[in-house]
Amino acid sequence: MKNKNIEILIPIEEWYELKALAKETRDMVSGLVEEKKKEVLSPKEVCAMLRIGRSTYQRYVQKGVIKENHPAGNGGKAYILKSEIENLIMEGEL
Question: How far apart are CA 34 and CA 14, in angstroms?
């Protein structure tokens, strides 16, 4: 069977709408992929991920359930590994 080229005509306004929708979808998917790849979380991101308040987060840190990392040279800002939070969830500790 021979490949045949098919030409489809649509109004230019619809073309631009489809193009914008495709770009929006691509951007949303890219954002989700990047978020999934992110391994280092801030305390604020951990609170959002676990749907807990900052005081509950601090209690978990004080009890040693959540382990904060404080690398030298980043102004004392804490970060938490996403994989550690996911492991705690899987183990039923959170």
Answer: 30
Residues 38 and 43: their CA atoms lie apart, in Å, by 14
Q: Which helix (H) or strand (E) holds 1?
A: none
pLDDT tens for the chain, 94 residues long, are 567 788 889 999 999 999 999 999 988 888 777 766 678 899 999 999 999 999 999 999 999 999 998 876 666 788 899 989 999 988 888 7
Sorted by sequence, the CB contacts under 8 Å of residue 57 that are 6+ apart come out as 43, 46, 47, 50, 66
Report the amino acid identity of residue 57. Y
- In single-letter form, the type of residue at position 61 comes to V
Q: What is the DSSP letter of 5?
A: -
